[in-house]
Amino acid sequence: MKTSPNSDKKSFIDLQYAFTRHIRDPDREPAPADIEDRRMDIYRGLLYRNVESFIANSFPVIRKILSDDDWHTMIRDYFSRHKAHTPLFPGIPREFLQYLEQEREAENDPPFLSELAHYEWLELAIAFDTHEFSTEGIDTTGDLLEGVPVLSPLAWTVSYNYPVHKIGREFQPDEPPDQPTYIVVYRNRDDEVGFIELNPVSARLLEMIQQENDQTGRSMLEQIARELEHPDPDVVIRGGADILQTMHARDIIPGTRKFR
Length: 260
Fold this sequence. Notes:
The chain is about 50% helix and about 10% strand. By secondary structure, it is mainly alpha-helical.
């Protein structure tokens, strides 16, 4: 008795689903019937190693601080549970970050794991961001105090509960410190990626510049001095001027806005 083309197609699709289910979770999903286990083992190892090595290279600090057993247990869980939304390898770090933030359920994970992953991903994300450094509409020699400073689109400010940039094998805090950690991650005109730890004043200043409210550098610093209730606003302004110059030298603030 002949089978119909539709039936053959369904059987092939069923085989594909069984194959991928087993590859993702070989401990719980049986391999398709009539496929030699030696061949299946090649696929199991090849696909897992490709994904595992790519994630390890993308999150090197996490890989270093976790034991081999904890690392591979976590990657196996990601490999079996997470439904990725892109087949492209450059998208895997973002997929892994989403898994940690939304799906991961492990009480023994370090409390800073998600924040550390976000920090490591952020460095990758800005390195591959499609924006180009541009000074169009910007006066690169403008007065940063009297003009309106402009923030580069390749400068991203973030805050974390943990000092993620300091975490490593020798430093793994159990609890967050009293003050959050502020960081700006940036890519300069030479496509070099770097970061600067910010204090509350510099973090607030970059936040205000990002809002593009046509305030001059001086007026923003005066507002910050009022917010701090600082007894000598000139101290804040002088310190803020140094911050602006440092950010300008790093291409975080390319210059001031040109007005027509």
